[in-house]
Each structure stands twice: as structure tokens, then as C-alpha cells.
Amino acid sequence: MQQKKGKVVAQQASGREGSDWWEDSNPIDELNPKKLEEVDFRYAEFFKEHFITRNKKITASTSMSTPKDPA
């Protein structure tokens, strides 16, 4: 508690509000393995969707820029 209060006072003195994500993180050995698996799965799904969307946009933009045969 005292350490957290000291951190807040130091941040206020430096004019910085809040904390960075890595400052409040738990050490890896204190994390729940099931929670880590869940987070890993969500990141994998996010990146999969991101790349699918990106590839669709690239495909659409390249097909629009190629001239069509008027016949």
C-alpha cells in the first residue's frame, strides 16, 4: 500500500497521471495458466481476423485498379 501511494505521489510530482500497462502487470509466474491460454487464443483470433480483412481490402483495391475489357 505504501509503495503504491509513493508511486502516486511521484507521478503527481512529475506531472504524469496514471501508470503504464507494464507497471501494474503481475510477474509471469503469478498468472493463471488458463487466463494466459484465453488471452493467447483471443490474440490469435484478433490477428486472424485482421489479416483476413486486410487481404480482402488488398484484393478489392488491386482488382479495382486493373482495367476491365470493354467487350
Short recap of the structure:
The protein is an all-alpha fold and 71 residues long.
Explain how this protein is built.
With 71 residues, the protein is an all-alpha fold. The chain has a domain at 32-63. The protein is 65% helix and 0% strand. The protein has helices at residues 2-14, 33-65. The mean pLDDT is 75.
Specify the helix fraction band: 55-70%
Low-confidence regions: none
Total DSSP helices:
2
Radius of gyration over C-alpha positions, nearest whole angstrom: 24 Å
- Our measurement of the CA-to-CA distance between the termini, rounded to an integer number of angstroms, reads 77 Å
Structural class by sheet pairing and helices: mainly alpha
What share of residues are in beta strands? under 5%
Oligomer: single chain
> What is the residue-mean pLDDT, rounded to a whole number?
75
Rough outline: elongated
List keywords for this structure.
mainly alpha
How would the blueprint of this fold be written?
Elements: H1 2-14, H2 33-65
